[in-house]
Amino acid sequence: MVSLALFMTSRWPCWWLYACMGLTGAAASHADALRTSSGLAQASAPVQQIHQWVVDTGDHHALPFLVVDKVHATVHVFNEHANWVGSAPALLGAALGDASAADIGDRALRKIRPFEKTTPAGRFEAALDYNLAGDLVLWVDYASAVSLHPLRSVSAKEHRYERLISLTPLDNRISYGCINVLPAFFDEIVKPQFAHRPGVVYVLPETRSWKSVFLKSTSQSSEIVK
Fold first, then answer.
1. Which pairs count as long-range contacts for 52-57, CB under 8 Å and 24+ apart, including other chains?
2. CA angle at residue 52 from 80 to 142, to 5 degrees?
3. Tens digit of pLDDT for each residue in 181-200?
4. Can you tell me the distance from the alpha carbon of 151 to that of 164, in angstroms, rounded to the nearest whole number?
5. What is the 3-state secondary structure (H, E, C) of 98-146?
6. Over the stretch 43-94, which tens digit does the pLDDT of each residue have?
């Protein structure tokens, strides 16, 4: 078995370390391992930039927040003090795009066309709650039925687990729009941050700059529940 120290000093980013640890069954040490690595420093430039913007503007209103990097298929979690808590790979909407169809949240999955399977970009007020199946999820865009939830198999032919733990983000586009993460990451990193309060999710766009999406939404952010 490859040692933790070797992973920490290798070229693999922190989220891959997390996935590999999940494969070895070392669930108890996941959170500690993540917190001891420099996760934010290994994130993409847009993630680092929007994190700095949140810190400078206080846009998160002293609530936990999460940044979804669609281009690199990663999720980055921060606490109410804007300190990095953990990062992990994610599965995202199969279609390229930053908006959801207006009525998509009211449709059955079988009626969603391939080009409509997008993960919308933007600033969302997020909270833990249960979906219609009784599963605990982090609701991101309730109206569009978009949530962040633990990985679950939809069809064996989709190979979602294999996609999630692969070394490339190029095969991580498979969902109807929801954000899928490893169950241990959801339970140990996401859930504790949002367990007793709502938070904010920033989904970075993939067809335009993050500034074009988030800077104009600042005036709307004052309405978030504290």
1. 53/214, 54/78, 54/82, 54/202, 55/82, 57/218
2. 55
3. 999 999 999 999 999 999 99
4. 9
5. CCCCCCHHHCCHHHCCHHHCCCCCEEEEEEEEECCCCCEEEEEEHHHCE
6. 999 999 999 999 999 999 999 999 999 999 999 999 999 999 999 999 999 8
Task: Specify the 3-state DSSP secondary structure of 53.
Answer: helix
Distance CA 204, CA 208 (A): 9
Edge-to-edge strand ranges of the sheet holding 179-181: 84-89, 74-78, 65-69, 199-203, 122-130, 136-141, 146-150, 179-181
DSSP 8-class letter at 61: T
Q: What is the DSSP string of 160-210?
A: HHHHHTSS-GGG-EEESS-EEE-HHHIIIIIHHHHSSS-EEEEE--SSS-H
Six-digit token string for 159: 């190979």
Q: Are 34 and 85 in contact (CB under 8 A)?
A: yes
Q: How many residues does the chain have?
A: 226
Looking at residue 175, its amino acid is S
Chain centroid to Cα 45, Å, comes to: 16
Could you tell me the end-to-end alpha-carbon distance of the chain, in angstroms, rounded to an integer?
A: 45
**Beta strands 199-203; 65-69: pairing state:** parallel
Alpha carbons 13 and 100: distance in angstroms, whole number:
30
Q: What would the two tokens of residue 75 be?
A: 């999720």
> Considering the entire predicted model, what is its pTM?
0.79
